[in-house]
Amino acid sequence: MTRGINRLGFLALALAAGSVAAYSQSTTTGALYGVITDDKGNPIAGATVRLSSAQIARTETTGANGAFRFGLLNPGQWRLNVTKAGFQNAGRDVLIQTNTNHQANMKLVTVASTTVEVVASQMAAVDLTSTQTGANYQMDTIQTLPMGRDMNSIVNFTPGVTDSGFGMGASISGASAAENSYVLDGLNTTDSRYGGIGNSLVTDFIDQVEVQTGGFKPEYSALGGVFNAVTKSGTNEFKGSSWLTFDARGMQAAPKRTVIYRQAEPVRRYDIGAEVSGPILKDKLFYFVGVQGDLQEENGATNDEGLKSSQHKINNYQTVFKLNWFISQDLQLTFSGNYNPYSNKQGKDYPEFGNANWGYDNKGFTLGANVSLDWTINPSMMLSAKLGRFQIRDEQNPNDTTTPYVSDRHWYAPIANGGQEDRPELYNALVGYARGGFATYVPLEEGISNQARVDLSYFVGNHNFKFGLSFLGSEYTEIDKQSGGNGWWLINGAASWVRQVLY
To answer: Residue 196: CB partners within 8 Å, gap ≥ 6?
Structure first.
């Protein structure tokens, strides 16, 4: 079965503000604006405003109203410096966050002959132009907090967010996980098959995470919330790191076995990875590459009939890359992507009771790739364009192709008049046994989405007109197989039969 859905969206939006308008930002970039005045509050025209990061530097000149603006800025630390003849130099550190307009008004003090730099502390990231609610997390600042390895666990720090309980992600403002929108590096990675989370990376590869819980900007589409993550980028400084963690089986509690339940064996787990970033061409071309493997092994357990399951192995891998190419200080081309293959195998998997083989071979991958263009055409016009593809593929096959996933169960329920559940042989019990019956498995399931969007911001005085066009084409393919013979059930209340079956 193959099903396809195409969606085309168009946005024409006009925004008006007081002295300054909301400026150009996107899912992967932020913006900075402000007004330069003298110590009496009069605007200073012709001041040079220089904004520099570990990648590039951009320069603007204030207009007659003393205003300046920078749009489509990569997230991270920037340095803002203002100079004007006859005034002291001023500077401050700025933390740019994704999808956020940051305001940085600065005041210059006159000076007779000497030049003294006045340095202000890093400004707080407060967007005064938006009614959007939520939170934005810089990974460097939350590393000391207890959190999971999965980037999607960051959403739980945000007020109004709880676990959905369905294994697909978080519930934001009471909505189900299937009503959220998940974005990674500007690419929509929502699982087109069921909704919910479609992709995940370890937090080591993430720079910032934005969680939107309400008041979405018109270019976003979600009934619940928006989860927006941005991976790290390279800079002019070469950096690298690696890690290895190990969960030893011998340091974990031994499994327990009762009459009706057997705990799983302890898991041996390795988490190994590395990341590296730096310049290819200084001030022009930068790279970031990350690789990670999560390897798990679990010994097979022996069931009540003496049948031992084979070793269970789960391997998850992640590869991430990003290239930032600054064709000029106002034109950036970004290539990013990730490929995450996995496998989940167990040759023989016997249930607690009986001899049915539930062994399986499960493998698949998620693949995301996109290219972004961020262009400040002139101080009054900015263009952001994105093109990408996201794919989820899962293959699942039983090792026993004659009777895959057929039930093989015992159960019992002691009589309610004071029986001891840990000594069922002393009391009458209702005993059941089931085997065979209809079974279904899915050897192939795949979801593919092709995406494109263009956003244009045009400024007229204190007004910002924003136009947008987006396309998302989604295709879902599923192949089902059924198997299994006749099923039969047995119920017997004899205590002797209970002892024979359960021990």
So the answer is: 164, 166, 167, 168, 169, 177, 178, 180, 182, 190
- Which residues does 244 contact at the CB level (< 8 Å), separation at least 6? 270, 271, 272
The C-alpha angle with vertex 133 and arms to 128 and 104, in degrees rounded to 5, equals 20
Q: What is the CA radius of gyration of the chain?
A: 29
Distances (CA, A) of 293 to 223, 248, 270, 287, 315: 34, 17, 8, 21, 7
Determine phi and psi for 97, rounding to 5 degrees. -115, 155
User: What is the tally of helices (H) and strands (E) in the chain?
Assistant: 1, 29
Task: Return d(Cα 239, Cα 192) in angstroms, integer.
Answer: 36
Neighbouring residues of 497: CB distance < 8 A, sequence distance ≥ 6:
431
Compute the distance between CA of residue 218 and CA of residue 220 in angstroms, rounded to an integer. Answer: 5
- Closest listed residue to residue 480, CA positions, set 420, 405, 422, 414: 405
What whole-number distance in Å separates Cα of residue 456 and Cα of residue 386?
12
- Residue 448 CA to residue 368 CA, distance in Å, equals 10
pTM metric for this prediction: 0.83
For each successive 10 residues of the chain (503 residues), what is the average pLDDT?
Answer: 62 44 70 90 94 94 91 92 92 89 89 53 54 81 81 84 73 81 91 84 92 78 84 95 88 71 79 97 96 93 83 95 96 96 92 83 95 91 94 90 71 49 47 69 89 89 80 89 68 39 31
Max CA distance (Å), the chain = 105
Cα–Cα separations (whole angstroms), residue 464 to 20, 157, 382, 458, 459: 9, 33, 11, 6, 4
User: In the prediction, which pLDDT does 4 show?
Assistant: 63
Length of the chain: 503
DSSP 65-125: T-EEEEEEEPSEEEEEEEE-TTB--EEEEEEE-TT-EEE--EEE-B-SS----EEEEEEP-
12's CB contacts (< 8 A; 6+ apart) are 465, 467, 468
Rounded CA separation 72/332 (Å): 9
Pick from 182, 190, 237, 184: nearest CA to 207? 184
pLDDT confidence of residue 420: 46
10 Å Cβ neighbour count for 356? Answer: 20
- Distance in angstroms between the alpha carbons of the first and the last residue of the chain: 46
